[in-house]
Specification:
The protein has one domain. Helix content is 15%, strand content 37%. It contains 1 helix and 4 strands; from the N terminus they run ββββα. Strands 1, 2, 3 and 4 form a 4-stranded antiparallel β-sheet that branches. The protein is elongated and about 45 Å long. The mean pLDDT is 90.
Length: 71
């Protein structure tokens, strides 16, 4: 298993879901919250909602999501 001390800060990031079940809203539908964490420091860099109906984010949307999380 990989450990934080095997990385330098900003060398690798981990994206993961913060909730197992979607959050239900009337206005925006169902969504999950994704978090972006630095692998070395274990610092959460940001989080963003993603529609629950999306099985996998396209590459362009993934890049945009990371940009939003890093603001």
């Amino acid at each position: 298993m990989l450990q934080p001390n095997q990385f330098q800060v900003n060398e690798a990031w981990i994206v993961f879901k913060l909730n197992d079940e979607p959050i239900h809203t009337e206005l925006d539908g169902d969504f999950y919250l994704l978090a972006l964490m630095d692998a070395a420091s274990c610092y959460i860099l940001g989080s963003a909602p993603v529609a629950a109906i999306v099985a996998e984010l396209p590459q362009m949307e993934s890049r945009q999501l990371v940009k939003e999380m890093l603001r």
